[in-house]
Task: structure prediction
Amino acid sequence: MGVALADSPTGPFVKQGDPLHAGHEVMIWPHGKGVASLATAAGPRMVYHATGGLRFVPRNDVKNAPQAPGAWRSDDFENNPNGPGLRWGISHSQQQGDLYLLRFECR
Result:
């Protein structure tokens, strides 16, 4: 998974730099003066950050990463780098063939 740019939502797209993540289940959110990302299905479970939104660098390991996370981010797109940011979200867990939604907390 990586970043690609286009002048139109239908393309053509031009890949930018190296891929960010292998796999899927990626959560992306505005963070500070850039964009943060967490991929949980493959590769290292880490938070990556890109100040300009293009060149992501690893920042923090994530222990017990949620599966297929989706975050509640009350300050998305408010252009406030000092907002509360990522605090909680939902993910899923499968146990004995049943699928459950779980709430997770961020610290």
The mean pLDDT is 81. The first strand starts at residue 3 and ends at 5. Residues 3-105 form one domain.
